[in-house]
Amino acid sequence: MDERDWLILKVLFEKQNITKTAQSLYISQPSLTKRIQHIENEFQVSIINRGAKGIQFTPQGEYLVKSAEDMLTRLQKMKENVLNMEREVSGTLRLGVSNYIARYKLAPLLKWFQEQYPNVNYKVTTGWSHDIVNMVYHRDVHIGIVRGDYQWSDSRCLLFEENISVASKEPFALDDLPSMPRINYETDTLLKTVIDQWWNRTFSQAPLIGMEVDKGITCKEMVINGLGYGILPSALIEEQKDVHSIPLKDENGAPLIRKTWMFYHEDTAEVKMVREFVRFVEKLDFTQIH
């Protein structure tokens, strides 16, 4: 068993499909099948059962998958420790980044960091913040940048704060909202909960949903074009001079705030490249990154 075999087991369990696993690992399906047979011969067990509905892992196969995850983590740690012995800051930095940060902040951030540390490579995964938190927790990434106050017991750094605001192309008052078309969008559970709680405290009727879209950025574009109002983090609309906005407040009159955090494990920062990236990010003013 080598690193490639452990990776095959991990990805195969995630995909539950031979063809998709082969595509993900950039190998041919016959080659993948041959490697699976090699693993089964080595351990003298069946790893998977093939059926009309796809593949199913045997108990022995599931055990090997768990071992694969442990082995890959140990191998990655060994590589990082070896690189850490060098004086040079180098290696592959694995980042998990929320969709908004990836779209608006990440490219200039990595450009500036690379100017100082040109021998660092990057593997970036983007997605919803709750998924990024899980990736950091399971050490699939070194560092996560997430939006919202997720529970995190290890090291973290507050990057910036923003108001949650109602935005519309035309002037409006908050009392007008129940009769105005609202543009809803998919977002993480934390932000949706904050918005729903505010609405339920403020109004007795449900919002008038005029449109459903995929992301906050799409909602912003619809607002700009006068198709309705949106309830958005202020970072999305602060540059739009022709959009009217009103920051929301909680029951005590305090602004509703959304925070953006950097999460990481304290022991992960013992790796030089991770430590230098953390120090670099801590010094930045994220509100000035465009």
Distance between the termini: 46 Å
What structural class do you assign from the helix and strand content?
alpha/beta
The portion of residues forming beta strands comes to 15-25%
Mean pLDDT level? 91
Main beta-sheet strand count, sense and barrel state: 7 strands, mixed
Number of helices: 10
Shape, per Cα inertia axes: globular
In terms of per-residue confidence, which ranges show pLDDT below 50 for 5 or more consecutive residues? none
Tally of DSSP β-strands: 11
Rg, alpha carbons: 23 Å
Oligomer: single chain
In CATH, what is the class of the largest domain?
Alpha Beta
- How does CATH name the architecture of the largest domain? 3-Layer(aba) Sandwich
How many distinct domains?
2
Helices and strands, in order, run as: HHHEEHEHHEHEEEHEHEEEH
In the CATH hierarchy, the third-tier topology of the largest domain is known as: D-Maltodextrin-Binding Protein, domain 2
Share of helical residues? 40-55%
Give a written overview of the molecule.
With 290 residues, this protein is of the alpha/beta class. The chain folds into 2 domains: 3-82, Arc Repressor Mutant, subunit A (Orthogonal Bundle), CATH 1.10.10.10; 88-290, D-Maltodextrin-Binding Protein, domain 2. It is 42% helix and 24% strand. The protein contains 10 helices and 11 strands. The chain has helices spanning 3-15, 18-25, 29-43, 59-84, 99-104, 106-116, 129-137, 189-202, 216-224, 272-282; strands spanning 48-51, 54-57, 91-98, 120-127, 143-147, 155-168, 181-185, 208-213, 230-233, 244-247, 257-264. The strands form 3 sheets. Strands 3, 4, 5, 6, 9, 10 and 11 form a 7-stranded mixed beta sheet that branches. A two-stranded antiparallel ribbon has the order 1-2. Strands 7-8 form a two-stranded parallel sheet. Helix 8 links the parallel strand 7 (181-185) and strand 8. The longest helix is centred in the first third of the chain and has 26 residues, at 59-84. The radius of gyration is 23 Å and the shape is globular. The mean pLDDT is 91.
